[in-house]
Amino acid sequence: MRPICFLVLLSFWFGGCADIPRGFHAVWTLPLPPGKDTPAPAGFTITPTQAIAIAHDSGALSRKHILHVYADADHYYIHDVFFGGGAHRALKQAVRIHGRTGAIVRNR
């Protein structure tokens, strides 16, 4: 019985890891906001600091909470870690901002 439970739990663990697309990576995960000199990922024209400012100005995120920044090939994912952090939560709950135009993308 134990091996079956272990296999079920292991399949959930690896099944959850498959949700993160290739190229999705953390840009900033420190408790302090990124500095103005933090570079933009390759192919992006706005910096992580500018992306956070866009998210704050939209009213979508609190200025009092810690934010993590993730990115894929085209978008920043600005994630409020008040209820928990991590790449899975960022994909599902973050404010998505286009890395070249700065436009907020509402739905996936």
Describe this structure in words.
- By secondary structure, this protein is α+β, with helices and mostly antiparallel strands.
- The chain has one domain.
- It is built from three helices and five strands, in the order αβαββαββ.
- Strands 1-2-3-4-5 form a five-stranded antiparallel sheet, sandwiched between helices.
- Strand 2 and strand 3 form a beta hairpin.
- The model has no long low-confidence stretch (mean pLDDT 86).
Terminal Cα span = 41 Å
Question: What gross morphology would you assign?
Answer: globular
State the low-pLDDT regions, or none. Answer: none
**Strand residue content:** 15-25%
Share in helix: 25-40%
Number of beta-strand segments: 5
Largest sheet: 5 strands, antiparallel
Oligomer: single chain
Residue-averaged pLDDT: 86
Number of helices: 3
Rounded radius of gyration (Å):
16 Å
Number of domains: 1
Tell me the series of helices and strands, N- to C-terminal.
Answer: HEHEEHEE
Q: How would you classify the helix and strand content by structural class?
A: alpha+beta
The spatial strand order of the largest sheet comes to 1-2-3-4-5
